[in-house]
Design brief:
Elements lengths: L11 E4 L4 H7 L4 E4 L2 E6 L2 E5 L4 E4 L5 E4 L1 H7 L6
Antiparallel strand pairs: 1-5, 2-3, 3-4, 5-6
């Protein structure tokens, strides 16, 4: 069976730590806060993010939430 490796790409991300106004600015205003969860517009429709989830801006400018354990296993900080 053929195997594939994910290409290395740089993304921008922000962690949801109660910083709603910063998150709202990051996603261009396409966010709202409902019942303790952040709701963001994604390519798949509205998605919920819980506290400590990461909000990622993908390579096409799309946004999506990512659980902290998955984020830590998949991404590393980039030195500027």
């Amino acid at each position: 069976m053929p195997k594939y490796r994910k290409r290395p790409v740089e993304i921008e991300a922000i962690q949801f730590t109660g910083n709603f106004s910063e998150l709202e600015k990051f996603v261009g205003g396409d966010a709202e806060f409902r019942g303790g969860q952040l709701v963001i517009a994604t390519l798949e429709g509205a998605m919920h993010a819980s506290p400590n989830d990461w909000i990622i801006r993908g390579v096409e400018g799309e946004f999506y939430p990512c659980k902290p354990d998955i984020f830590e296993a998949t991404y590393e900080a980039v030195s500027e």
